[in-house]
Amino acid sequence: MRNRREILAAAAVGIAAPALLRRAWAQQDAIEIGSLVSLSGTFANIGEQVDIGSKVAFDYYKTAAGKPLRYVQMDDQGDPGRAVRLTQDAIRDRGIRFFMNCTNSAIALAVAKEVANSGGVYINQAGADEMTGSLCNKNTFRWPVATYSAVNTTVRPFMKQFPDAKKWYTITGQYVFGDSLLKNLKDVLGELGGQHIGNSYHSLSDREYSGFITAAIAAQPDVLCICNFGSQTIDVLRQAVSFGMKRNTKIVVVWSTGLDQFQSLGPDICEGVYFGANYWHGVDTPGNRLLSGVIKEKLKVTPSYLLTAGWACTQATVEALNKAGSTDVPAVIKAFETLSFEGPTGLEKVRAEDHQVLKDYYLLLGKPKAKMRDKDDYVEVLSAEKAFLSPDKTGCKL
């Protein structure tokens, strides 16, 4: 398996040019698309992979609406305020109207508001329900599912399989995304007769979780549910397993990033753990076969969720531009709202009422090392389901 440095080198096709070249860009009549990615800060490992997946997709598609595409990398450093300033600069100085990507929900929500105010278009990977709920807007679209969908497509089938696993303890990231997962989990537990017996919050900067895990063990739960994101998910799970929690407690990770996390954890930690995921490379769909072929040819790796997320937002933008046949923003928004395309998870459709992409979410179970068919075969796919709030219940008013 190639390491992250090698992958970054292979994908180093980003754009960096001074304002003096703006006239030359205009003459080339390219469609510039700004990509918000965290290349430093807490979630840099996530931003780097999303960035790479986006670049590979740009290199593959090359054009949209009959014009060349140009990728404009914007390092927000994990800071919503910086992300907004970069977006403002891109709109003012370069006239960019199309944006994509994010590293966390707080950044995406801030950028979505700015892009809407400027009359642009933005598609992102935020998980917080508010993105296509109470804070939705007509200019913004979301590719992955909301936390509502993630919780309902993982916790419901899990509880059906283990009806006696009633007592749940959570370790939650104290940020927008973590709180959104926790709220939805409590709702499902309340409906299905589960008990939420305790929660430990951690901050965005925490790396040591032994105190939280000790509190979880003392509560004697049937299930430990991890409600956070990225490297913090890896750290919490690794430490929970090292404390022996798998012996007496089932572990559910509601939102994983899939393969890259499994590779970091290794099969011994993943075995017997239940993971929710937006994507799994083993799914046999036309869109995934295309994506997998391109990623393997360009990067010599199996596609992960993070690479796929960058690809998917690029693909959706290209599909909408091609359907509109122009870069006119109202026309592109209208095209987005009626978009249906072969995406990485199968046939993916945009719901016009809230701009959510309707797609499958997966419940995965970590395999024993002895049952892995190849080096990337970490999990068994237990289910692939869609679970979305009806538009009249999301709180979205476009």
Structural overview:
It holds the Pfam family Peripla_BP_6. Residues 31-364 form the Leucine-binding protein domain. It comes from Bradyrhizobium nitroreducens. It is built from 15 helices and 16 strands. It is α/β, with parallel strands linked by helices. The protein folds into 2 domains: 4-145 and 283-358, 3-Layer(aba) Sandwich (Rossmann fold), CATH 3.40.50; 147-277 and 361-393, Rossmann fold (3-Layer(aba) Sandwich). The strands form 3 sheets. Strands 8-7-9-10-11-15-16 form a 7-stranded mixed beta sheet, sandwiched between helices. A 6-stranded mixed beta sheet has the order 2-3-1-4-5-6, sandwiched between helices. Helix 3 packs across helix 14, helix 4 (80-94) packs parallel to helix 5 (105-118) and helix 14 (305-324) crosses helix 15 (329-337). Mean pLDDT is 93; it is low at 12-23.
